[in-house]
Amino acid sequence: MDLRNLTSISIDTKKKIAWIQAGATLGEVYYRIAEKSKKLAFVSGVSPVVGVGGHFSGGGYGMMSRKFGTATDNIIDAKLIDANGRIQDRESMGEDIFWAIRGGGGTSFGLIISWKVKLLDIPEKVTVFNVPRTLEQNATQLVYKWQHIADKVDDNLLLRLFVRNSEFPFGGGQRAIYAFFTTMFVGGVDELLHEMQHRFPELGLVKDGCIEMSWIESILFFANFPRGTSLDVLLDRTNQIGFFKGKSDFVQRPISINGLEGIWKLLNQLLSENSGAELQFSPYGGKLSDIAESEIPFPHRAGNIFMIEYAVYWGEIENSQSNIAWIRELYEYMGKYVSKYPRAAYFNYRDLDLGMNNKGNTSYEQAKIWGEKYFKNNFDRLVKVKTKIDPTNFFRNEQSIPPQLS
Fold this sequence. Notes:
Layout: E1 9-12, E2 17-21, H1 26-36, E3 40-41, H2 52-58, H3 65-68, E4 75-81, E5 87-88, H4 90-93, H5 95-101, E6 111-118, E7 120-121, E8 126-134, H6 139-149, E9 157-166, E10 176-185, H7 189-199, E11 211-213, H8 215-222, E12 243-251, H9 257-268, E13 276-283, H10 287-290, E14 306-314, H11 320-334, H12 364-375, H13 379-389
Antiparallel strand pairs: 1-2, 2-6, 3-7, 4-5, 4-6, 8-10, 8-11, 9-10, 9-13, 12-14, 13-14
Helix pairs in contact: 9-11
């Protein structure tokens, strides 16, 4: 179903709400909010080309999630076309269905055409930094320490970590392993420095390494656009990612030094031309951990220190098999360091390795294999909602929620 032309975004700054059609991109949403207000924002992912429909319905982690939760936590209404062609809103669909589409994936229950979200109050300036460290600059010890504090710092601070096997700065240099401490603080630089010196002095952050900017400028910063780039780039839908495979995990106890060194060893084994790999460590705590697991289908709450996205990129299709084999090996290696029973996964980092049926006619038992990883104890409730709204399984895909067969 092609939603690319459903791009209307309607913003009410007085009521602090927005109606956003499902075919809009995150970049367009951010642009339109900033166009209307310097003191309102929304919490979603960092890539401007990501589509709203899937992102909102599966969770939507972003650089302010420790303060405001996920995008899904901030949805207050939606319009959905059901299997009978009726347009439903929150009132007519009922709370069970409205619960399901906020984190359970929109594509199982109907065709979501627009979302109503609450906009968030922010200061006129936020503070960002991006500090790279190599293994020779003590990156292993820094990553180990980061795990002990990332979910415990001030809720205004989201201290994200990217570990990359790449050239620095992304071309023209020697390939090596880098840890990038990439951060957003909803507030000023002095307050940020105080918190960092208290919680993470080992990083050696200094004032010159921090930049105060508006929230909308931070969107460009985290999307890796040079300082001073026109906001108009947020309206560009071009995505030049090439080939890509991603997987995910949740970490509940710090990974040991030996465990981290094993990751570095595997990263150094990725040698194919035009390939690159990244582990993205996204911290928990704050609002993310305050919300109950059953509040919405997105269940990854208290008890998690951070989420990992594993990603591998390559340029030539003939390198696909070796790169996919590599990321599967990394995922297998990580099994002993991550959540168990189930080994959880983030639905927005969809991973067909977890189990699928090509025709989308998945049985309950088949679906439970991946369903409990994505949704934990919320899976059975999602099946009940699916049975209620779409008993004939009209809306289906490789990893859609199945109806309960009578």
